[in-house]
């Protein structure tokens, strides 16, 4: 009898254990499914395409890269321009932090100041629109008060870039610049890769090769306003630049050749400073007040290092800039005047409505023997990497 009871208890125990085991199994499967569902919901990662217009008989497409956090970066064939950067604010609300247009017509209107574009063959200014290389003098389009700006009349911002998708987070843009194009020597093959990373960074990798010695200085001309349209200017943004020096320039923004300290002066952004604080006291050339200068980054060599950090207190958005380049042009949007049409959401891009942080070699380097070299020779590969990393500070 005692034995019978014992074996019944053992059976009961086994049954209960089995049932509990099954419940546990089931729960864990359910949890996994839930997790998967959430993962799938968040997994909008990938690249989509949308027609954007036609340029020189070729279709212009807007490619949008999304990552698993919902951040998006868009770019088009025309000028290789970045058309959107959508990032979360401190409450998780998404917003577009760069200037741009609804369609290609916007980009093709007169006087577009390089919104989002790739800049080349030589970003920034070359004095008197001339340089001498291996004993030969080359003349460039004088498109900026007698000097040559951003590669001339039809720089890389106004050409058609081929775009190929690479995996689900990168776009490869290529352009072949012909020997003699805009006055520059050598056939230059340029490749730019835009990558949106899992940590909310837009990484831009540039490479170029040539068949004749030529100056090369590539950059991107995105205009940022981290309020994403909530604040019409960037005057309340705080900027930090990892630069103890800058290159003073004349009234047409051609460097004098000197390297000057920023310490304690109006150009000092070595600790975060509100952009509006000293803006009206600074001569930005061309009779303007504001910033439009090249800062000399605190670095030696071409390691990828932090160059700048930008913070917008209301949204909490924070953007860090890392680069392999020796300089950065901080331009406070002094020429914006609210007249551009076809803008995204009809926004008015007013004076100081957005700012640029153009990582670069120093302006006019081909005419300034003491500045870091910008001449690319056959057999060499030009390389530059810049990262714009987005996060929030609460
Ligand atoms: C660069 C220049 C500025 C201005 C803008 C475009 O940042 O340094 O002077 O030409 O491009 O308007």
What is this structure, in a nutshell?
The chain has 394 residues and is mainly beta. The chain is 12% helix and 36% strand.
Describe the structure.
This protein has 394 residues and is mainly beta. Helices cover 12% and strands 36% of the residues. The chain is built from 2 helices and 28 strands. The strands form 7 sheets. The chain has a 9-stranded antiparallel sheet with strand order 11-12-13-14-28-24-23-18-21, with no helix packed on it. Strands 17-26-25-22-19-20 form a 6-stranded antiparallel sheet, with no helix packed on it. Strands 1-2-3-4-5 form a 5-stranded antiparallel sheet, with no helix packed on it. The longest helix is centred in the N-terminal third of the chain and has 41 residues, at 2-42. It is globular and about 60 Å long. The relative contact order is 0.15. Alpha-D-galactopyranose binds at residues 113-114, 124, 149, 253, 292, 329, 331, 335, 356, 358.
């Amino acid at each position: 009898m005692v034995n019978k009871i014992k074996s019944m208890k053992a059976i009961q125990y086994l049954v209960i254990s089995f049932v509990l085991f099954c419940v546990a199994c089931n729960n864990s499967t359910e949890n996994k499914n839930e997790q998967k569902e959430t993962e799938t919901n968040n997994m909008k990662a990938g690249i989509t395409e949308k027609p954007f217009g036609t340029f020189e008989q070729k279709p212009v497409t807007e490619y949008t890269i999304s990552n698993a956090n919902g951040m998006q970066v868009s770019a088009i064939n025309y000028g290789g321009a970045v058309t959107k950067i959508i990032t979360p604010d401190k409450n998780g609300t998404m917003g577009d932090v760069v200037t741009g247009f609804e369609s290609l017509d916007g980009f093709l209107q007169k006087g577009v100041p390089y919104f989002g574009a790739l800049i080349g063959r030589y970003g920034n200014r070359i004095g008197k629109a001339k340089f001498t290389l291996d004993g030969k003098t080359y003349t460039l389009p004088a498109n900026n008060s007698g000097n040559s700006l951003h590669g001339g009349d039809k720089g890389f911002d106004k050409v058609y870039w081929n775009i190929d998708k690479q995996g689900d987070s990168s776009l490869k843009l290529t352009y072949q610049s012909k020997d003699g194009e805009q006055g520059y020597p050598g056939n230059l093959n340029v490749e730019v890769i835009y990558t949106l990373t899992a940590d909310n960074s837009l990484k831009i990798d540039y490479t170029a090769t040539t068949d004749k010695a030529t100056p090369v200085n590539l950059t991107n001309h995105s205009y940022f306003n981290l309020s994403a349209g909530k604040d019409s200017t960037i005057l309340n943004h705080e900027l930090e630049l990892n630069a103890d020096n800058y290159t003073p320039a004349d009234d047409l923004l051609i460097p004098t050749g000197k390297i000057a300290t920023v310490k304690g002066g109006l150009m000092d952004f070595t600790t975060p400073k509100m952009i509006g604080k000293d803006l009206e006291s600074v001569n930005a050339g061309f009779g303007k007040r504001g910033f439009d200068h090249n800062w000399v980054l605190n670095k030696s060599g071409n390691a990828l290092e932090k160059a700048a950090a930008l913070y917008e207190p209301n949204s909490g958005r924070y953007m860090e800039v890392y680069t392999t380049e020796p300089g950065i042009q901080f331009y406070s949007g002094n020429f914006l005047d609210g007249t551009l049409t076809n803008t995204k959401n009809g926004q008015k891009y007013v004076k100081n409505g957005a700012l640029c942080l153009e990582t670069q070699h120093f302006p006019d380097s081909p005419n300034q023997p003491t500045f870091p070299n910008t001449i690319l020779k056959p057999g060499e590969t030009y390389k530059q990497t810049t990262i714009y990393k987005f996060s929030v500070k609460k």
